[in-house]
């Protein structure tokens, strides 16, 4: 089951997209959708914030009264929500802004099935792959199943490792940094920073010679000599992703 959110101030548009999703589901029996519709951005934001609502894919109009879709997407990202966003709009005016909030696609209305279905299929495949990426870690007698894409970073704290999650929660495990890195090193989005941190490149807001700004608001100061290799790793990760036809990263590689 995939969670789909639709946000548009026109009920007609909401019903149209819902109908296309139903058509897609009929053609792909393995895909089942749980759809929630919102007539304004504030209703969506309230649901995300208060009820920890985390849709897999969000279809959102850009031009809405009260709050533009771009502004709403920016707030969703600040909450640590990594849902796939597809903007539906009547103009290409905000295409660059859509790029900055890591939107997956920017479709101009009226949207047709032949435009939407290939994008939807690709995103559903990505979500399906991510759902298989979990880190099983034990604390005491309890085993936690940690979603890799929700890990912002891991910090060494004496003999323990603290994992900071996108929803603000933290998990403390008694194990070595080397052991955790061994478990995540097969995934290209994880990079080691000095001896105390492992960061998820997908959660980096900005990178300078002195510090990392993570999208949960935490700053990580870089040890001497770590900036250049980290910058190269960061660019390589997003360039590989872009060339492979995946997500839009902060940088588009030409």
Shape call: globular
Strand content: 25-35%
Give the number of helices: 7
- Intertermini distance: 36 Å
Instruction: Output the strand order for the largest sheet.
Output: 2-1-3-4-5
TL;DR?
The chain has 7 helices and 15 strands. With 254 residues, it is α/β, with parallel strands linked by helices.
Word description of this protein:
By secondary structure, the chain is of the alpha/beta class. 35% of the residues lie in helices and 30% in strands. It has seven helices and 15 strands. The strands form four sheets. It has a five-stranded parallel β-sheet. Strands 10-9-8-12-11 form a five-stranded antiparallel β-sheet, covered by helices on one side. Strand 8 (151-157) and strand 9 form a beta hairpin. The longest helix has 19 residues, at 113-131. It starts with a strand and ends in an 11-residue tail after the last helix.
Topology of helices and strands:
Blueprint: E1 2-7, H1 11-27, E2 33-38, H2 41-51, E3 57-61, H3 69-78, E4 84-89, H4 95-100, E5 105-108, H5 113-131, E6 134-139, E7 142-147, E8 151-157, E9 160-165, E10 170-173, H6 177-184, E11 190-193, E12 197-200, E13 204-207, E14 211-214, E15 219-221, H7 227-243
Parallel strand pairs: 1-2, 1-3, 3-4, 4-5
Antiparallel strand pairs: 6-7, 8-9, 8-12, 9-10, 11-12, 13-14, 14-15
Key features?
254 residues, 5-stranded parallel sheet, 5-stranded antiparallel sheet, globular, disordered C terminus
């Amino acid at each position: 089951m995939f969670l789909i959110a639709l946000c548009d101030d026109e009920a007609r548009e909401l019903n149209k997209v819902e109908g296309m999703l139903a058509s897609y589901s009929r053609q792909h029996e393995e895909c089942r959708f749980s759809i929630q519709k919102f007539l304004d951005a504030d209703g969506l934001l309230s649901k995300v914030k208060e009820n920890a609502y985390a849709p897999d894919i969000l279809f959102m109009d850009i031009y809405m009264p009260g709050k533009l879709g771009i502004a709403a997407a920016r707030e969703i990202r600040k909450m640590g929500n990594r849902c796939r966003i597809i903007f539906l709009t009547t103009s290409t005016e905000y295409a660059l802004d859509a790029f900055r909030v890591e939107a997956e696609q920017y479709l101009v209305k009226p949207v047709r099935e032949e435009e939407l279905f290939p994008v939807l299929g690709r995103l559903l495949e990505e979500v399906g792959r991510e759902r298989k990426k979990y880190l099983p870690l034990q604390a005491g007698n309890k085993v936690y199943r940690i979603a890799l894409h929700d890990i912002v970073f891991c910090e060494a704290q004496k003999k323990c490792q603290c994992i900071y999650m996108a929803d603000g929660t933290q998990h403390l495990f008694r194990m070595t940094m080397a052991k955790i890195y061994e478990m995540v090193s097969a995934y290209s989005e994880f990079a080691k920073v000095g001896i105390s941190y492992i960061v998820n490149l997908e959660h980096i807001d900005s990178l300078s010679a002195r510090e990392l700004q993570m999208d949960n608001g935490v700053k990580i100061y870089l040890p001497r000599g770590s900036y250049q290799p980290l910058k190269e790793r960061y660019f390589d990760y997003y360039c590989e992703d872009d060339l492979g036809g995946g997500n839009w990263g902060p940088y588009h590689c030409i």
